[in-house]
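Thread title: Can someone regenerate the structure for this chain?

I was given the following input by a collaborator and told the matching structure tokens would be attached. They weren't. Posting the sequence so someone can regenerate them.
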Amino acid sequence: MRAIAAEPGSSSDIILGKIRPDHFLLTPTNPERRATVRSIAEHSLYEQRDPYSIYQPGGYVDTREACYEAVDERTVKVSGSRWVPAPCKVKLEDAGLVGFRSCIIGSIRDEGVIRNLDRLIEAAVARTQDNFPDISPETYRLIFHIFGRDGTLGPLEPLKEDIQPHEVGLLIEAVGKTQEIAVTVCAFAKSIILHGGFDGRKSTAGNLAVPFSPDLMNGGEVAEFTIYHLLPVNDPCELFPIRFEDV
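Best answer:
Regenerated them for you:
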């Protein structure tokens, strides 16, 4: 285990685990770090969908009855967790090309623009389609990330009625069938956001501040999962035969 579960946390060191019949002990190898009840218990949340059922090949660790105890200033004892056998599964993954990415980063500090940003985005999407009738909407995607409001969770953000932010960051992303399509729609969408009108507007431009010139950046190929599947197997090695040769 990496010492990210220690205090202070680090991915450069490791924590030494000592396994006993009914418990295990965790101690950082670096004397400047220490394992605490809180730091070890919190690590059960690391990259886990459910901290009480930590799945591994052939089963999962049930931590519902786990007990974390400090043995000394740098060591924690963990007991009560148990291994629950389950059918073994092999994870299959594959990715395929879906297009090419272009993006523009900007920021908005005008409260009128922020208040009307959703309308400006709707206008940018609609006018991009109208302005390029020869580019099928099926060949590209326009995606807007509004950081400072819901840029992380997007439509899943629960605080919809939160206090109006005084500024937001806007990432305009276009994924097109070709890089040329992505560049075209991304640049045009930005121009609509930059110059788009709304009730109470005091200027004819300047809705969006961009930190770079040129402002458009190409991200190249974009891939997505085409296979993400758990395949049940009787033996985890049956799909991966091992051959030994003496040389």
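Residues 95-227 form a domain with the Alpha-Beta Plaits fold (CATH 3.30.70).
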